[in-house]
Amino acid sequence: MHPDPRFRHEDRGLLEALVDQVGFGMVFLTTPDGPRVAHTPLLPAGDGSVRFHLSRGNAMSKWLNGETALIVVNGADGYVSPRWYADTEQVPTWNYVALELEGRVRRMDSDGLVGLLGALSARHEARIAAGEPWTMDKMPPEKLRAMLAGIVGFEMEVLAWRPTFKLSQNKPADERARVADGLAAEGAVGIAELMRRLVP
Q: Which Pfam families match (predicted)?
């Protein structure tokens, strides 16, 4: 989390929407085997918890249950050139959106895992325009059982939400507008749009 308090955003609905829209993140844990990170799809449960699954063979899977872990979700970002400022005494920087989630993790039972996978696939299949959505019932039961045996579901009860929305809030409005225009022109449309929408 960036130390500048101007880059905070405390709208919990916005933070949960970020997790939902990005849908993917990194889980960090210090284990007896050393520090580990796992990359995984994420699903906010709407009750302050986030669900995810890992391969049973992942180096982190055997240690997560009951531990406090950290999840990081990265949103839009973009390089900010000093050329875009009217004030010439500027240096390069990076605007970005990131969210750290800290909380206790519990292992889900098999029904919870199936529910998580069904919800994840439904969420992301709905984003694909063409064709009929994939569902688990399209798998032969024995094949599905074998696939399920290879993964473990987890749920984090989020105890701390630490967001960074670094959107040039430390610059005057006219400079922010120039930076947003520069970012958009260079293809970083997502971060430019967030600058325009979230910073007054």
A: FMN_bind_2
